[in-house]
Input
Amino acid sequence: MEDVSDPPFRALCKKYGADLMYTEFISSEGLIRDAAKSVQKLDIFEYERPVGIQIFGSNIESMIEATKVTAKANPDIIDINYGCPVKKVACKGAGAGILQDIPKMVSMTKEVVNATDLPVTVKTRLGWDDDTKYIVEVAERLQDVGIKAISIHGRTRKQMYKGEADWTLIAEVKNNSRIQIPVFGNGDVDSPEKAVEYKNKYGVDGIMIGRASIGYPWIFREIKHFVKTGEHLQKPDIHERVSAAREHLEMSVKWKGERLGLVEMKRHYTNYFKGIPHFKDYRLKLVTSMDLEEVRDALDEIPERFAVEF
Output
């Protein structure tokens, strides 16, 4: 969720029902070098709480120092990313790359836990590939060195985001009598029905939503309403979609500056307006324009041009 789960995005997710949120992952090397982009990602706000700051790295000493820097930002949780599968991270031994060296993963986690009084959680995957799905043992060992919760994406690093997430191993972790910490499942949950089905079938303590929330922060309130009532909320109409997109845009521009704010909003527009017939011209304008006023004008025009029900 790099360049996605920033403060503007998290503000909307919180508004629409997210219970716990994490920042974009932050490079430990960037933090200890005081790199501007890494330091900016430490920004959290009171309305977000509870909120965790997520860090990643391959060097244990750097992770210790980054943990101390992160703690000064006063998050509720420090999370370690052992799940990112992208090549530039994993092939350097960080993110999911550390799944090739479980002893180092355990040692690094222990050192991070010992470096802070804040609760430490972990996000990881089932294993590096189909031959190394050691997540049940890994969860035990990470619990033993002091983590307070674990979130598991139901794919290996080799799978990236392809295929179907396997929640059966997540359930094995949750149902392991040795595991006393909360276990959160992640992967392929993109509807209220799936959230309830997976919660009931696999027994997890909660569900982590990632890609399904991009451009659709309403998924959190829809899931919570369905869990509570068994009924579906009405989908956001065109006015609510435009309002959320505009709010997101203005916060993004304010926080990151006009150019970067416009660029990083592009990934969200497709989902904000997904399913609207004949929307191609407006989608193209939203994702290609680098003129803030032009984007604002396009958003203003949408409700009149596309008065549709969902």
